[in-house]
Specification:
The structure is a single chain. By secondary structure, the protein is an alpha+beta fold. About 40% of the residues lie in helices and about 15% in strands. It has a 4-stranded antiparallel sheet with strand order 1-2-4-3, with helices on one face. Helix 2 packs antiparallel against helix 3 and helix 3 packs across helix 4.
Length: about 160
Amino acid sequence: MVLTRRSALLGAGTTAAAVAAAGAFIATRTPSRALRPWDEALRGAYGDPRLRALAYAVLAPNPHNRQPWLIELRGTDRILLFCDLDRRLPETDPFDRQIAIGFGCFLELLRMAAAREGLAATIEPFPEGEPRPRLDDRPVARIGFAPAERSSDPLFA
């Protein structure tokens, strides 16, 4: 088959239309499943205010979208935060620096969400000692909650 100018232009036009359609689909699609925790927190679906705050924190930005957090509720006013060691990035983040930054995002978002719920979040990083050279099975943070005046950080909005 001989490639003519007409068939080349037709092929290029078809390809451009397909790319534009795919781009429009991706740009306009709402990740409903990913946003469900926020939607449920806003609806008041969680009775425990820690869970409402966590609904925001679990969607914090983190390296390669790995969501490496494991959360353990303790009593009625505490949380222990651990790293899911299987979600670390040994090749691109051999010292867990990026993962640690992601945990910082998680904790800051948790603090802001708790303040919106009328709770002060007291964060104790590495309560059982700082891991070296990499994160291990000890807690990344211990978070305590106490009643406080409701506040809303402009960044949270």
